[in-house]
Amino acid sequence: MPETIREVVALFDDAEALEEAVFALETLGFDRAAFSLLADEATVERKLGHRYQRVTEMEDEPRAPRATFFSRISRLEAEYGPAAGLAALGALALTGVGGILPVLVAAGGGAVLGGALGSLMHRHYARLVEEQLARGGLLLWVNVRDAAQENTALEILRAHTAQDVHTHEIEA
Questions:
Q1: Where are the alpha helices (DSSP H) in 95-141?
Q2: R_g of the chain computed on alpha carbons
Q3: Three-class SS state of 172
Q4: CB atoms within 10 A of CB 38
Q5: Is the CB of residue 38 less than 8 Å from the CB of residue 134?
Q6: Does residue 147 carry a pLDDT above 70?
Q7: How far is residue 138's CA from residue 69's CA, in Å, rounded to a whole number?
Q8: Which terminus of the chain is less hemmed in, N or C, by CB atoms within 10 Å?
């Protein structure tokens, strides 16, 4: 018998409500890796060989390609994290550990690279949100380990205005 994954599925018509629901679940102990979104339209078409008209067509499609959910906090970490780390290296250089010029150059380059990566994540997420809202909503899958997590996810998602909230199992 193939191994299965149990998921709670929810459809949101607002990106802010989705973000708040995921944050609420994270504060209750759900791991960041438990959340996924429907991939962008091009990826769906490439993987499945067809386009979808409504996001709801993909809710229970086991082959639907997924995108990792990056919360607003994660996107900000990606944008500003490298700059902060390299600024710390700069502080070390100022205290006499290593030469200052290479560290400052690295810090500046890291800040630029971090900003570019964060900006890219923001644009990709914005495009994904726009595409899916135009097709009926934002689809969220939440992997659950047990009945207690499943009940918590169902309750939290419904409380955050999710629609069509249900559970399904797909092959691992």
A1: 100-134
A2: 20
A3: coil
A4: 25
A5: no
A6: yes
A7: 11
A8: N
Q: How far apart are CA 113 and CA 124, in angstroms?
A: 16
- Report the C-alpha gap between 21 and 138 in whole angstroms: 12
Residue 13 three-state SS? coil
What residues have CB less than 8 Å from 105, skipping those under 6 apart? none
* Burial class for 3, CB neighbours closer than 10 Å (0-12, 13-18, 19+): exposed
User: If you write DSSP's letter for every residue of 47-92 in order, what string do you get?
Assistant: HHSS--SSGGGGTT-TT--EEE---HHHHHHHHHHHHHHHHHHHHH
**Which tens digit of pLDDT belongs to each residue from 14-71?**
999 999 999 999 999 999 999 999 999 999 999 999 999 999 999 999 999 999 887 5
- Is the pLDDT higher at 116 or at 160? 160
pTM for this model (two decimals): 0.74
Amino acid identity, position 72: R
How many Å separate Cα 119 from the centre of its chain?
A: 15
Phi-psi region of 2 (alpha: psi -120 to 50; beta: other; left: phi over 0): beta
Closest by Cα among 22, 37, 70 to 139: 37
